[in-house]
Specification:
Keywords: Glycoprotein, Leucine-rich repeat, Membrane, Receptor, Repeat, Signal, Transmembrane, Transmembrane helix. There is one protein chain. This protein has 79 residues and is mainly beta. The strands form two sheets. It has a three-stranded mixed beta sheet. A three-stranded mixed beta sheet has the order 2-3-5, with no helix packed on it. The longest helix has 6 residues.
Amino acid sequence: MEKLKASLKIPSSFDWSDSDPCKWAHVTYDNQRVTMIQIPSQKFGGTLAFDVKELSKLKIFEVMNNQIGGPIPSFVGVS
């Protein structure tokens, strides 16, 4: 999650400042594993420069309608 955070330009109105990503808005965890990232239409920028496979329990990944560029990460190996 820290790699994802570092790769994005996060809008000032959005709070991902807590050192515990389990407390970040629009991120859902189950047993300390990320299961959902839902940040559509939130004015994010940057790129998705991280390995989605590291989030092995990710089921929902919504980033549409933002200003995010670059290649789409591979979801091979993600359930």
